[in-house]
Write a structure and sequence with these properties.
Blueprint (H helix, E strand, L loop, with lengths): L25 E10 L5 E9 L5 E7 L4 H14 L6 E4 L9 H6 L4 E2 L1
Parallel strand pairs: 1-4, 4-5
Antiparallel strand pairs: 1-2, 2-3
Length: 111
């Protein structure tokens, strides 16, 4: 039987590691998935401030496009007086798109 080797992912960090030692330093963005009783998939996008543990974003939809995510991030950044220093996210397939790095370029670091 062939040994399984995990797929290597490119390191997309644009800043050195940052500790969330104050509010608005590190915000964590992630997706969760669930399904309804009839089997339809539901996506949930959530974002928290890692220092205060305050929920900043929660979008629940059947489908969340990169453009929709960028629009929601823009809304949160405006409401909170600007972007954080770092936006932490995993390398999940739902967050690997061209729209998100373009939106974050020269604005916020991606870890």
């Amino acid at each position: 039987m062939r040994a399984h080797c995990p797929r290597k992912r490119a390191d997309v960090s644009s800043v050195p590691p940052v500790e969330a030692d104050a509010p608005k330093v590190v915000w964590a963005l992630d997706f969760q998935f669930d399904s309804t009783i009839d089997g339809r998939a539901v996506k949930i996008a959530s974002m928290i401030d890692e220092h205060t543990r305050e929920s900043l974003l929660h979008v629940v939809e059947w489908s969340i496009t990169a453009e929709r995510l960028v629009a929601e991030l823009e809304r949160v950044f405006t409401a909170r007086g600007g972007p954080p220093r770092v936006l932490r996210m995993d390398n999940g397939p739902e967050l690997i798109s061209h729209a998100l790095p373009q939106f974050c370029a020269n604005r916020v670091g991606i870890v």
